[in-house]
Specification:
13-stranded antiparallel β-sheet, nine-stranded antiparallel β-sheet, Beta-galactosidase, Chain A, domain 5, PcRGLX_1st
Length: 869
């Protein structure tokens, strides 16, 4: 039916297709809404070519007034990319009677969950995690369903025993009629010890995703080792005593009868009939030019495979081989299955017998053991369909995408600074090298062979190769420094080019599993933290993605730590927050909240007296909060802390998070301080202050979105203006004084773009009255663009990421209209608390007295034990 199109808010959606084939499956996207536009999902619709259509909708975030800030939509892909979708909000109920469909529903008991779909019947057994799938004919399920189970075998090839199984269901309603549009069935299984002392508490989470609009079922399988690593000497090498070693993780499908099988190994091949069984398709390595890259070494520094690409065996005899497989199986005339990133996340395998299809996520191989490090996860995604059409799952590998018009993202309180972006701007042309140059981000994967289940998605830190002999491969992982997830997603929203989203998607999945330390058993300042990029100028060796290896040298550069774990100077959450808001991915949201909890502990600590003694010893260490005066360091770590709190606030709208940000700003900088006393001319030790100011600007932007111009807002604004004045008078392009820098390279030039951000914001927040700020901001931006364009290193990863992260604010603050006149700057703010709290002796006595009143012997012992093991 047609609905009233005189609604209050209309958002066109742009579609993007990655192939010329008709799209298959679902589109999904998220829509940002301004404050007050929508309070109830019953007051919105999705139009397709002017007609109301079925659409799943889920609220991802709300504004402080409880209106909807972000809503995630999922709907069927059209037959043509010329089709137009428009998301419409209205302020009153649609009074037209609605008929409720029953395409998708479920029933649940203590022992099982049944999902009822018009095309199939699905049953999950709560006792063991097994499930079955049967097609329907005339709305009746077939009597011979396929049954399936997750197989996990330890290092000795013994079956691991499941000790618990917890099941949760999340529904997504249909805007059209209120029926269930989509379901997520989350099955968390833990495993008991197979061999005493080998491992414990290993868990696997199976997440099934169903939709009323398609017969395909998505299954994400996540294996998790929650133990902490021992990281002796501050090194995090493979082979750690708390790693979980295992021989197989597979999903096995069984049939009670012998079934015909069709298969294809690569997506463009013709289907084949399996005449001789068994058939095994195994991806041993990436199949790329650098398939034997040292990026793949195991704990013995050996590459654990010797075959390039994939092999296909019939009855144990090799039938064919190739480079990169993407197999699909059609079994029993109704069952389709395929595995995402089959070759990218090698090793992978498919084994087909007369009565079984086994998908080897970590396939059983002779003399091969896999290692899941303490606090590490690994996720694989497979698709199932109960469909007679062999091509039913074609679209899952080349899915179309959708997004709102770029201007709509001005409604977001991230903010993104993209609405005034110009595709022909000099900086944008440099950023486009990330897709178009010979050293684009996809090509960098090939250079390092950044493939395999642990590596895929991460970026090659090729800037670390500057002093390296190019005759061999230098392994260095980037681990999300300066937040390329955020940069990639910004580029996707600006251009609509799905390749940017692919980079963000692959990296976000990698970071969520590999780069975050998923344990609660280590030091609290490590638990849940983000691992640094692998060490500067040194091979990663066996450190995997965990910074420091015992094989690396010491004293490689100024202030070289040579060991240690996650630290607040490396915490990036904005990309993960935006990824959640664009995709609805709950794991990304939890990653943001986890990282926020972690970095909060890094700076605030716990409540033990022993910890306070350590803080006393370290009170003058750069980068650490002074727990006695309460002052935070003026650096990027504090900026990361603020950004994490702001990202969590954007996701959950908890005002106490904003209050924490205000507390940090109050105890880091002062609007009336003499900036010259900060000795900012010592660039190597103080350049981070610019990053802190960028975080302050983001706080102001968020407050401005809800017209919250309180005392805290103006304190932060006046801090910005105080420092902006110093920047105006004293800052220059870093490489204009190369002699004071340890490594004077064009990374410093890319960092100069941050100054443009701060000065452009100062121009805006001073009511655009100080054109000197605008002029100096444009100077820095133009200098960065011209100097990087002339540089031989312009495509280095770190330089590209800095450009992606920091481009946009100058145009935004110049062209955005002032709709609110800010107060004039004050010059009589009270002295900061960290200056006027009294003598150090009094502060010391107060701090220890408070801890002693709350002392817990068990907490003291636990804190000490984690540092003595």
């Amino acid at each position: 039916m047609n609905i009233n199109t005189q609604s209050t808010y209309r958002i066109p959606l742009e579609l993007s297709f990655s192939s010329e084939e008709n799209p298959v499956g679902l589109l999904s996207t998220s829509v940002p809404l301004p404050v007050g536009a929508l309070y109830n999902l019953q007051h919105c619709h999705l139009l397709h070519d002017g007609k109301n259509v079925s659409c799943g909708a889920r609220i991802l975030a709300t504004w402080p007034d409880k209106s909807i800030k972000w809503v995630h939509l999922s709907f069927s892909a059209p037959q043509s990319n010329q089709s137009k979708f428009i998301f419409v909000t209205c302020q009153q109920d649609d009074i037209t009677p609605k008929s409720v469909t029953q395409a998708l529903s479920y029933t649940q008991s203590d022992s099982q969950t049944k999902v009822h779909h018009s095309d199939f019947s699905f049953v999950l057994d709560h006792n063991n995690g097994h499930f079955s799938l049967a097609p329907k004919k005339n709305n009746i399920a077939e009597s011979n369903p396929l049954s399936a189970e997750l197989i996990l075998k330890d290092a000795f090839k013994h079956d691991c025993t499941m000790s618990s199984c917890n099941v949760a269901i999340h529904e997504t309603p249909d805007l059209l009629d209120g029926a269930v549009f989509a379901l997520q069935l989350i099955v968390e299984m833990t495993y008991s010890d197979a061999e005493q002392g080998i491992y414990s508490a290993i868990s696997a989470i199976n997440t099934f995703s169903f939709s009323a609009e398609q017969s395909a079922i998505k299954l994400d399988v996540t294996l998790h080792n929650p133990a902490c690593a021992l990281h002796s000497g501050g090194s995090w090498d493979l082979g750690d005593a708390n790693s979980f070693h295992f021989s197989e993780l597979s999903v096995n499908f069984h049939s009670d009868v012998i079934c015909p099988v069709n298969y294809r190994v690569e997506s463009q091949q013709e289907w084949k009939i399996a005449e001789t069984l068994p058939i095994a398709i195994t991806q041993h390595s990436s199949g790329g030019t650098n398939w034997q890259s040292p990026v793949h070494v195991d704990h013995e520094q050996k590459i654990p495979f010797a075959i390039k690409g994939y092999c296909v065996q019939h009855q144990d005899a090799q039938a064919e081989n190739g480079l990169r497989a993407t197999p699909s199986i059609h079994w029993a005339n109704f069952f389709n299955v395929t595995l995402e990133h089959f070759w990218q996340k090698f090793p992978s395998a498919v084994l087909i017998t007369e009565d079984r299809v086994s998908l080897g996520l970590f396939p059983a191989q002779a003399d091969i053991k896999y290692e899941l490090q303490g606090g590490e996860k690994s996720t694989h995604t497979l698709w199932l369909a109960a469909n007679e059409d062999k091509n039913a799952l074609n679209g899952v590998h080349t899915a179309p995408s959708a997004k709102a018009d770029t201007i709509q993202y001005a409604n977001s309180d991230m903010p993104l600074y993209i609405e005034h972006s110009q595709r022909d701007a000099k900086l944008q042309q440099l950023i486009n090298n990330g897709l178009l140059s010979h050293s684009n981000f996809f090509e960098k994967r090939e250079q390092l062979d950044e493939y395999g289940w642990r590596n895929f998605g991460d970026l090659y830190a090729d800037h670390e190769t500057a002093e390296h002999d190019a005759s061999s491969i230098f392994v260095s992982h980037y681990n999300n420094q300066y937040d390329p997830i955020y940069g990639f997603l910004r580029q996707y929203l600006i251009s609509g080019d799905h390749r940017w989203f692919t980079l963000a998607d692959d990296l976000a999945k990698h970071v969520k599993d590999i780069d975050i330390y998923h344990t609660k058993d280590d030091k609290s300042e490590y638990n849940g933290g983000l691992f640094w990029h692998t060490d500067h100028y040194l091979q990663a060796f066996t450190s995997s993605h965990r910074s420091y290896s015992k094989h690396q040298g010491k004293g490689a550069y100024q202030d070289h730590a040579g060991g240690g774990g996650p630290g607040g100077q490396h915490c990036y959450t904005s990309g993960l927050a935006l990824y959640h808001l664009l995709t609805g991915d709950e794991a990304a949201k939890q990653a943001v909240l986890t990282l926020t909890d972690w970095i909060t502990y890094v700076y605030e600590g716990g409540n033990t007296c022993l910890e306070l003694l350590l803080a006393l010893k370290n009170r003058h260490v750069l980068g650490l909060k002074n727990h006695f005066s309460g002052q935070y360091p003026l650096d990027r770590g504090t900026a990361n802390y603020i950004n994490a709190l702001l990202d969590s606030y954007v996701l959950v709208s908890d005002t106490t998070l904003l209050e924490k940000v205000e507390h940090i700003i109050y105890h880091t900088a002062h609007p009336d301080e003499d900036v010259s006393l900060r000795k900012l001319e010592n660039v190597e030790e103080t350049w981070f202050y610019i990053v802190f100011l960028q975080a302050v600007v983001r706080y102001l932007d968020i407050k401005r979105k809800t017209n919250d111009y309180d005392r805290a807002f103006y304190y932060a604004r006046d801090c910005l203006l105080n420092y902006a004045h110093w920047i105006l008078e004293h800052e220059y392009m870093y490489l204009d004084k190369p002699d004071i820098l340890e490594y004077p390279n064009d990374t410093w030039t890319a960092q100069d773009l941050r100054k443009a951000h701060v000065l452009a914001a100062a121009y805006f927040y001073s009511n655009k009255s100080s054109e000197e700020y605008q002029s100096k901001a444009l100077y820095f931006e133009n200098q960065v663009a011209s100097r990087i364009a002339a540089s031989d290193t312009k495509t280095y990863t770190r330089i590209m990421v800095l450009l992606m992260q920091n481009d946009g604010p100058t145009a935004y603050f110049t062209q955005t209209e002032l709709v609110h006149e800010f107060k004039s700057r004050e010059t009589n703010w009270p002295a900061p608390d960290y200056v006027r709290k009294g003598s150090f002796s009094a502060l010391l006595l107060k701090a220890f007295s408070k801890r002693l009143l709350e002392v817990s012997i068990s907490n003291e012992v636990n804190w000490l034990k984690k540092r003595l093991r």
